[in-house]
Amino acid sequence: MKAGDYPYTRGIYPDMYRKRLWTMRQYAGFGSAEESNERYRYLLGQGTTGLSVAFDLPTQMGMDADHGLAAGEVGRVGVSICSLADMERLFAGIELEKITTSMTINATAGTLLAYYVLVAERQGADRRKLGGTIQNDILKEYVARGTYVYPVRPAMRIITDIFAWASRELPEWNTISISGYHIREAGSTAAQEIAFTLADAVAYVEAAVKAGLAVDDFAGRLSFFFNSHNRFFEEIAKFRAARRLYARLMKERFGAKEPRSMMMRFHTQTAGSTLTAQQPDVNVVRVALQAMAAVLGGTQSLHTNGMDEALGLPTADAARVALRTQQVIAYETGVVAEPDPLGGSEYVEGLTDRLEREAEGYLSRIDAMGGTIAAIESGYIQSEIQNAAYEYQRAVERGEEIVVGVNRFQSEGQEAMPVFQIRPDVETQQVERLRELRASRDGVEWKARIAALREAAVGGDNLMPRILEAARARATVGEVADTLRDVFGEYREGAANP
């Protein structure tokens, strides 16, 4: 069996990187749209081959910059996007039809996708040619990350509406990036990362089929997002096991017939949770090894973390070094000459088999509980991740797990590394722009489009056309989210949810 053969253990394409390298997609976003645009232009000039947008917490949580709970968070961990005008500023001078963009956005993914499509069309682009990804993976938010808005079941409806709409309107767009990354960052093991990610995938596919979509009509646009952690060979085996298990699930459980529906295409990011504030320059070594594991594991795109990310957002210099790390792997090491250089290794094949068995065990237990949503609502998945995180931390404290510079090989008096600073007036600027937007837009048109969105939410119509028209009428992220909150309610952890 070789790369490109079902079940794709050795890679989804016969030639892998011989003909085309992975996409070098550096994750970036901070402060205002203009500042993030400047960073994107810098990264493109340095050789990055895809954009990846980080949004601030208010944008992720469906809050405008002037919301009371947004105070102090505007532009802090990502770029602040409140409106279509902000999205236009974010991509000014960047031709969206000529580049792929990944957007790490979940609860408000439909609104940000609508803004992106409208910006592209204003540039003269054909929406059917737009390429990129929205994360749009809400289930992992309930178990590992927390940027949810709505209860689980209406949140799933929004996702399947995006699947259905995009399959017609954005045929080249990846409508979800099912994330194991955040599961691993929360403390899971490698086997748990595979299992809980695929459990989420099963839930999304089941929901889409229940909504009337044929598997082969949407499965080819599903994508995944994995962590690349410190255990070098285990990480390589993890990617191989995940591909094989996914291919079998799609063929045997869901009856997929198209090869693309069974191919696990995934983005990888090096493990932020492994970076240390102590001796941060050593993080360059960690990132390089993690990136090499992702490449040997067959990733389709890759983000390498900056050495300073345990201290703050990456500086431009740290982002450049992170990108150069990928370029050295691609152009200087020779590992791209073979599709699966470690395939056939007794050790790697044994690790692959073990991780697949362990992941299958978790999936069987989740099925017995009634599926992923039931396992989330019961707290089972959360508890398993928390227990794994606790055991690892205990091992570090006992000295059984060595973290260089933290519990061994400490260094005194090291030189401080520069820390990236956000402009203090970003929030004030965003609030003023919101006031100007609300004062200048056509209030009658805006009110009509918001009312149409509410009507679709109450009924059963697909939400995406209504979100798109509300965005066109210059509705804000917060206004769209509030309209849906009024109908669907909000998710409260530990409380009874609708």
Helices and strands, with pairings:
Blueprint: E1 23-28, H1 33-46, E2 50-54, H2 57-60, H3 84-90, E3 101-104, H4 109-122, E4 132-134, H5 139-145, H6 152-169, E5 173-174, E6 176-179, H7 181-185, H8 190-210, H9 215-218, E7 222-228, H10 232-253, H11 259-262, E8 266-270, H12 283-296, E9 301-303, H13 316-332, H14 346-369, H15 372-377, H16 380-398, H17 426-440, H18 443-458, H19 463-472, H20 477-488
Parallel strand pairs: 1-2, 1-9, 2-3, 3-4, 4-5, 6-7, 7-8, 8-9
Helix pairs in contact: 1-3, 1-13, 4-19, 8-10, 8-14, 10-12, 10-14, 12-13, 18-19, 18-20
What would you say this structure looks like, in words?
With 498 residues, the protein is α/β, with parallel strands linked by helices. It has a single domain, classed as Methylmalonyl-CoA mutase (TIM Barrel). It is 51% helix and 8% strand. It contains 20 helices and nine strands. The protein has helices at residues 33-46, 57-60, 84-90, 109-122, 139-145, 152-169, 181-185, 190-210, 215-218, 232-253, 259-262, 283-296, 316-332, 346-369, 372-377, 380-398, 426-440, 443-458, 463-472, 477-488; strands spanning 23-28, 50-54, 101-104, 132-134, 173-174, 176-179, 222-228, 266-270, 301-303. Strands 5-4-3-2-1-9-8-7-6 form a nine-stranded parallel β-sheet. β1, α1 and β2 (50-54) form a beta-alpha-beta unit. α1 runs parallel beside α13 (316-332). The radius of gyration is 22 Å and the shape is globular. The mean pLDDT is 96.
